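Hello again,

I reread your note about wanting to compare the complex against the isolated chains. To keep things tidy I'm splitting this into two emails, and this first one only covers the full assembly. Below are the input lines as submitted, including protein chains and any nucleic acid or small-molecule components. They are followed by the predicted structure of everything together. The single-chain runs will come separately.
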Amino acid sequence: MDKTENKEIKNEVTPDEVIQKANVEDFVNELSEELELPPDTDVPFVPDPEPDNPKEDDIDDLFGEADELNLDDSKKDDDVFNDDEDAAIFEHQTGHMDSARFMLIQMDKMVSFIFHLFSGVGNWDDYRIRKSGSPHGTEEDDYELQALATLIKKYQMTLSVEFIFISAFAMGYTGVATKAFSDRKERINNTKSKKDQDG
Amino acid sequence: MARSAKCTIIIGTNNTGKSTLTKSIIEKASNRALVVDYSGKAKIWNEYDWLHINRKEDCKNFEGIRRYPYSGYEDKTFEYIYKNVKQATIVFDDCANYIKQDVKKAHPYLKKILVDYRHIPLDLFFIVHSVNDLAPTIWGHAKEAIIGASQNLISGDRLKMLEDGNSFLNIQKSVNKEFHKKYKEGGTNHYGIFKRIKL
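Full-complex prediction:
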C-alpha cells in the first residue's frame, strides 16, 4: 500500500472512530474513571539541583532557578564542611580505600611507563612515586588516596574481579615490554653488524 | 468510583495503527499524559509540547498531553518519572528502542515504576512491534494487552507468565489472520484491527 495514502487515512479518522474500530470503548471508559489515590503519595526524595545534561534552552532556567534552589549567598566557604550532610560524603569505608589503593598503583605504573617512553632513559619504573607505599608517609596524609576513595564512594564505582585481574595482569607486563623492545633493537643491530662484518 | 491504575501493553507491527490508537485513547481518557519515545522525532507526537521531567513543579502542574525523548536523559528518564510524575498516564512508545530485556539490572527506576505504579498512581502503556520486543519483567506486571497483528506469536517464558496463555495465542492468530485478509483486499480496512485481553 502507498505510504502517502496511509498517512492521509491516519489524519482523516477521528479518535472515536479509531477506538470504535479497535473495539476498546470499554477500556477507554474504564480509563476515564478517576484514579484511586493513596493516602500519602509524597515520597521525600533529595531534589536534583540541576539536570545532568542540561539542554541549551535550559541554561537560562538553571541560572534563573537560583532562588528556587535556596542558594544562600551569605554561606561562607568555611561553613561548607560544617554541614553534617555535606561532610558525610567525605567518609569512606575500607572497600573504597582498597579500590582506591589498587587504582592508584595501576595509574602510578602507567604514568611512570609513559614518562619513561618520553624520556627514553633509565628503567620503566624510575618515575613511580608509589613504588614503596604512599609518598606522603601515612595513608591518612595521602590526599590523592583519600580523594579517590571519596570519589569511588560518591559515584558508587565498583571494580569487578575481572577488571582487577585484567588491569593488574596487563600492568604487570609494562616493565618487560620496554625490555622486549630494547632487546629486539639490540638483536637487529647485532645481526646487521654481523652481516656488515661478513660482507 | 475510583479505580486502580492500569499497566497495558499495545502490540502491533508497522501500519497496524498502534500509535494512532494509543493517541486516540489518551486524548479521550487522560487529563494528563506523558509520551516517551526514543528520539522525540516521531511525527505522531510532534504537536505536543515538551515536559521537562527534571522539574518537579512542571511535572506537578502540567495538563493535557506532553512528551519527552528518552535520549534527553537516557536512563535518568525513568528516575525523573518515578520521582516527579504522579496521577498521570505514561506512554512508552516503541519502547524496544530503549528498554532492555533485563529491566531489573538495566533500568532500576523503571522496575520501581512497575512495582509502584498503582500507588503513585500512573497508568502505563508500553507500545511494541512484537511480543519478543518487551522485557519479561514488564509482561509480569502488565494487566491488559491490546493486540494487533505482529510477526511473532507469544512463546517461551512470556507464554508461561500468562494465566491464560492459550487465549492470548488464539487472539494473536485471529488478529493476524484478519489483518492479512483485509490487507490483501486492499484499501484501508487492515488499519486499526485490535483485540483487548486481560492478562
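For quick reference: The interface with chain B takes residues 1, 5-6, 9-10, 13-16, 18-19, 21-24, 26-38, 41, 43, 45, 47-48, 51-53, 55, 58 of chain A (CB under 8 Å).

B.
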